[in-house]
Description:
mainly beta
Amino acid sequence: QPRAGEHFTVNVYVRNAGKTSSGAYDLVMRVRDVTRGGTYPIGTFRKTGLRSGEQVVAFTKNDLLVNSGGSHQLVVEIRPFDFADGNASNNAGLLSFHVIE
């Protein structure tokens, strides 16, 4: 549980659950302040494709900072860059967390 105004670490893992290799994709990330209703972008990052079944740490940030306490969500979305994804239903995820005041 992070504290408001203190840095914390985020690791985002991505796995290709498909039966074929993927092409490059954009990893879009943001923090949603559920308590206050704001959304704050972390960034968009271009990543290389993954083999079928491959899992990687697609993003690590050890200095993420949230200034307000309360309920938050880390929202992660994968947007195919140079390929057609046959199953886009699993291309987004979120992690809920509480920031201590």
